[in-house]
Each structure stands twice: as structure tokens, then as C-alpha cells.
């Protein structure tokens, strides 16, 4: 995997440490920093036959693992969790040691956003994990979910009748989970974008054409004037025929201005 953009970044082929430097979260985080990660085909499809695994983006798997390693929490909607057969984040003695060195918990929990909390306690999310997942749900659904899931998960009521992005981030912040990796799906990404709560988008571009039918990485209206949310290209990596793109939103740049930019005025 090699660095392409910006100029002056790490030269040539990147080892694991250099790659971690590219994707490092800002050092100081007074609030949750939301990084969204998706893979898409060259013609914009977010899945093939209903699964993102149908998209083959060279370099995506190691970056996917690294993004999870760097995160405090992995956030996903219930539909994605069910469709993709989610389980807990993978770990190893080396991964645990690196996370301890950064002052993080040894394994990031998966946090599921769901109004209904309709999750199968026999699913791999609960049975194949090093740490219990979090279930972020409504007050009405929390009680039945606690009875059904027991000690398999931490069930958190974050709203009376709805689960909003702001309430989700507030619950994560209360637990010291500031490095947020959102893995979708498109509806969850859309809700965070519409609320103006996305800091960064990591997009792995698969060199394939999916054809008509599959949806895009975002569902719902985009944030910003005219329905268009502007982003800044922060880095580009290339691996074989795949591209790994990283974009920052104005919100993300406010949290961590790019080099040479005044954090107050936004000018160089």
C-alpha cells in the first residue's frame, strides 16, 4: 500500500506504523469524533447481493482492521448488524498491547443503534465477542431488551421514542468513548450526516462495476446548503487497483485543523 496524497506525506510503501499514522485520530478530543467507513464500487454501489463482502477493494481489509484497532467504539445500525452477521472485534495479544499503549480499552465494543432492540441473543454479536456489545435503544425497548439479553450486552436507553445521533454520541461520551468508528449502514450514516455530526469519511473504492440496483453509501438528505455537504480530501492511498480515500468535513477540520490552517479563521 502506498501513499498518494497529500504531497509531503509518508513516502512509498507504508508499513503498519506509517499506516496507523495516516489514520490516527486527533490527539485532543473534547467531544466524540465520528469517522464513517464504507466500501463502494466504482459506479457507487454499496453492496452486491445485499452484502458489502461482494465488493472487492484491494487494501480494504487491512485498513478495516486498523480502523477498528484505533477506535474506542464500533458503531453500527441494527440492519447492518443482522445483514452482515456482525460479531465482536477481533483481537490478539499484539492488538491489546498497542491499544493499552494508547490508553484505550483492550478491545473496542460494538455499539448497535436500534429503536426496537429486536436482536437475537444467539447471534454472533453476543456469542462470539471478547467484550459485551452495547445496545443503544429507546426507553420503551430498553426494559424488554435487558430481560431478553441479560448480561450479554449493556442496554442503554438514549431516547423516549427515537434514537437520535446527538443522543447516541452523548451516551458514548459519558462512557469516555470519543473515537467513534461508524460502519453504517447507509441509513445510520444518513442520519449522522443530516445532523451535521460526521467528522470524517473513509471510502474504499473497489475497481468493479456493480450495475443497476444497489443503493449508495448514504440514505436520506445530505447536510449543508442545497443538500450538498462539502468535504476536503485528506489522504489517498493506493493498493493494486484499489483506492482508499479519506475526507474531512468542516466539523472534522474544526476538531483537528489541517497543517497551516488557522483553527479560528479556517485560513492559512
From TrEMBL:
Annotated stretches, region: Disordered: 249-268
SUPFAM superfamilies, A to Z: Dihydrofolate reductase-like
NCBIfam families tied to this protein: PRK14059.1-2
Biological source species: Actinomycetospora atypica
Pfam families the record matches: RibD_C
Domain Bacterial bifunctional deaminase-reductase C-terminal: 32-244
Record's protein name: Pyrimidine reductase family protein
Annotated keywords: NADP, Oxidoreductase
